[in-house]
Write a structure and sequence with these properties.
Residues 5-224 form the ABC transporter domain. Keywords: ATP-binding, Nucleotide-binding, Transport. Pfam families: ABC_tran. This is ABC-type antimicrobial peptide transport system, ATPase component. One of its GO terms (molecular function) is ATP hydrolysis activity. Helix 3 (103-113) runs parallel beside helix 5 and helix 5 (147-159) packs parallel to helix 6. Helix content is 34%, strand content 29%. The strands form two sheets. A six-stranded mixed β-sheet has the order 6-7-8-3-9-10. Strands 2-1-4-5 form a four-stranded antiparallel β-sheet, covered by helices on one side. The two termini are 18 Å apart. It has a single domain, classed as Rossmann fold, CATH 3.40.50. With 224 residues, it is an alpha/beta fold. The chain is globular, with a radius of gyration of 17 Å. It has helices at 47-54, 77-87, 103-113, 118-131, 147-159, 177-192, 204-207, and strands at 3-16, 19-32, 36-40, 62-67, 70-71, 88-91, 165-169, 196-200, 212-217, 220-223.
Length: 224
């Protein structure tokens, strides 16, 4: 199976005044195409920092992060933005939808940044919303949707540019348990369709849906 993500000897520290604060230590990880992996660990274990590095929102202090065949640790900010836009789909706990835009326009947004023609954008956004059971909600703004519907819009948006990796950060954290289960069923279907998914969660029950669990503790991989 093709490796879509390779993390090699990655450490990350932040500078606070004169202090150097280490957050991640010597992380080594390879993720194959089609894997559904949970990243778990207590608060402060480095989960969010690792997700930010994988998502090209930050750079490692040392080591390499290779997405596809690109070593992201040596790319310019512009090149990182292109990788983010084309290779990675983000799904957040708080949905992060644009409140003034309709569901359709929210899903179109990542395609706007990739200069995809308008007609093509609209067609794809409609197909994705239909696929996620929101074909009758395309003109609704986020405030007119339930939490579960908003997360479905967010998933559709994450899929817009056919990313290689879906990054989900506590995707059911703001949902009731019934709606959370429905969202996890969507992730399971995407996984069965061959999508590569990395999900940060503190919920052991959710992690059982994954075929791999990576546990972090004190900035190190404790168990994989």
């Amino acid at each position: 199976m093709r490796t879509v993500l390779s993390i090699e000897d990655v450490s990350k520290s932040y500078t606070l005044g004169k202090l150097e604060v280490p957050v991640l230590h010597d992380i080594n990880l390879a993720v194959s195409e089609g894997e559904f992996a949970a990243i778990m660990g207590p608060s402060g274990s480095g989960k969010s920092t690792l997700m930010n590095l994988i998502g090209c929102l930050d750079r490692p202090t040392t080591g390499k992060i290779i997405i596809g065949d690109r070593d992201t640790s040596i790319l310019s900010d512009m090149e990182l933005a292109l990788i983010r836009g084309k290779k990675i789909g983000f799904i957040f706990q708080t949905f992060n939808l644009v409140s003034r835009l309709s569901a359709l326009k929210n899903v179109e947004l990542p395609m706007v940044y990739q200069d995809i023609p308008k007609g093509q954008r609209i067609r794809r956004a409609k197909i994705l919303l239909e696929m996620l059971g929101l074909g009758d909600r395309t003109d609704h703004k986020p405030a007119e949707l339930s939490g579960g519907q908003r997360q479905r819009v967010a998933i559709a948006r994450a899929l817009a540019n056919e990313p290689e990796i879906l990054l989900a950060d506590e995707p059911t954290g703001n949902l009731d348990s019934k709606t959370g289960k429905e969202i996890m069923q969507i992730f399971s279907k995407l996984h069965n369709d061959g999508r590569t998914i990395l999900m940060v969660t503190h919920d052991n029950g959710l992690a059982q849906n994954c075929d791999r669990i990576i546990r972090l503790k004190d900035g190190r991989i404790e168990d994989d």
